[in-house]
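Throughout our pipeline, every protein is held as a single compact record rather than as scattered files. Such a record has a labelled line for the sequence and another for the backbone structure tokens. This encoding replaces a full spatial description with a residue-level series of whole-number codes. For reference, a complete record is included directly beneath this paragraph.
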Amino acid sequence: MHRSTTSRPARFRPAATVALLAGGGLLAGTLGVAVPASADNVNTAPTSTLKGGATQLKLPYGVATTAGGATYVANPGDTSILSFAADARTGAAPLRRISGPATLLSVPVAVALDANGFVYVSNAGGNGSITVYAPNANGDAAPVTRILGPAGSLLGARGLDVSPGGAVTVAVATGSVVTFGPSASGTAAPVETIKGAATTLAAPFGVLRQRDGDLTVSDATGSVTTFAEGADGNQAPKTRITGGASGLVNVQDVGQDSAGHLYVVTSTSPSIRVFDEDADGGVAPLRSIAGVATGLSAPRGIEVLPDRRIKVASSVNDSVLTFAPLFPLKPPTTVKAPTKPRTVTVSGTRRSTKRVLRWSAPASTGGAAVTSYRITVTHAGDPVLTRTVSAGARKATLTRSRLARGRNRIVVRAVNRAGRGAAAVVTIRVRK
């Protein structure tokens, strides 16, 4: 990261910040409007709530989490970035607070973390900017990097995404989405700018770089559009969810879980609406969180955690809410060794030059595919031969010359990734 040498903009007083949030469209909308019916509407209380005076939350907007679960909150009502412990609940004080003149924060509305723990903040105040802070920054900490872009390019900065490679993508409420290279600072030009009539973008709010590189943008006018990786200029989206049964009104942020589901926040009708990653047109959501029990009140930013719990900044009631997964992860399958092979037979007589050993697959594979079968032959406890055959064979030819005279004990075991399974035993006699 490069340290910015650009000058500091005028700082917003708290009263001016609230005026911008309320009067500039960020807090537009009437709460409590009925949510359109969806395929599966969940009116459920959050599993945990972070709020109260000690938290210092005031109009929280953006949320981001570390790999360890710590929560960062963009807090424009108090011009700060707050960090909380993973298990923080109502009444918990922040672990760290980035705030003060040196921070250059100006109506911080979104926060993101890169792979190294650097903290990226989208500032909606003034002409807009991105400020970047060192991991674990606290107090009146100066940013290590500050991105202003060309004049006007970040005016109305909103949502923020930092790719694994360090590219910074910003939703700009005046109708564009801009992406800066990993080393951008100062007035560096964006490497990509999605803007123009064909994009259908009017008031972008949230941005999300999907797992396959495609870029999804939530638009406050009531849509979620996805552009192909590398999209630039006046380019039409691949898909656009809007109207019809989608229920998208006053759309805010967008998130994604490990299965690819898109989680869309709506504020006028407070809800979290979940769509398939390839959804298009006026399709209904797969599931929704909405209703009085949810406690959602002008929800803004969203983060879907690795375990698929959902963390949302609820701005009007100064809280961060966490909900149980709508699509729980399947518990990891415990793989065991297979049971013994069935129906073990040996053809021929004790004088036969060749004996054919056959068996059937085990009743249980232990939760994983059988990869092979292991055959051992012993005589009076001493090894005679060992052989491995493929999973599909289920037979082996044993020649008299390789067997011991007298009684031979044959053991067949199925093998999977957990190891060798239970033994199926058969005894034959050999005469030489």
